[in-house]
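As agreed, record passed on underneath.
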Amino acid sequence: MTLLHPDDDPVVVGANWYRFTSGEQIVNPHVMSVSFIWIVSGGGEIRAGGQSWTVDAQHVVRLPWHHRVEYRANRRGPFHIGTLHVVPRYDRSAPVIPRVAHLPGDPLLDDPARHGDAAAFRPGLSTMRNAAARRITEFGTIAIERLGEGAFDEEYFRALGRLILFENAAWADSHAQQTAVPGSLELMMTFIRHHIAEPLTVARVAEAARCSETTAQRLFTRHTGESMQAWIRQVRLREAGSLLRTTGMRVSEVAQLVGYPDPLYFSRAFRRAYGVSPTQFARDTVRP
């Protein structure tokens, strides 16, 4: 775990989307940042620091200060990625230049205002199931949007850099690497979350990951300890609980949004899971 020292003054210097073409390969030999890369869709391979990761949607990769990285996109379904670049220590005496050094000859490679320690940020692989990694990608999306708006607000991006490194301290990458689930399962889990209001059969979910129904069921059982339908039910009821606690929706409206067309059946399932009725659950919430 890499803790943020009180004297550190990190700043976000770059963030962007990139959509690879079929089989495209890119090598960046001298990336002077701590980088976070998340896969939006598609897949491919990322190599850095003597390691290689086969990645697809929902994977997040962290790369250390001053790294060499190679991207190899799949020929079928090349990946679409988001990238985020943080300089861990950027001297206050110098104005921040919002650009990432990554090629030989770039004067920013020897910028005396930029500092980092390659040993402090180990290469790591995680998924969106890791809350810290997921929040980093959310900050990355914010950075992309703000950088696209034009004027660079140094204090904003210094504050954002600090938040990102706080989340990085909770990354716990060694645990995440050991427990990371297969990409096919992540695809199915993401599909379920995005289509939670719709009827979800094993066949439909398996199709999202281009695998057989047997393989889909086996992946859920092996990595979650539950059948696919049991996992879907948990996701539905967890989302229902969140809606009941954070909105003023009626029980029947919540039931529809989480894939239960019959409110009575939903109420019974909810009571079995939470021990109280949806109405009582919502009533116990403090409203603004």
Summary: The mean pLDDT is 87.
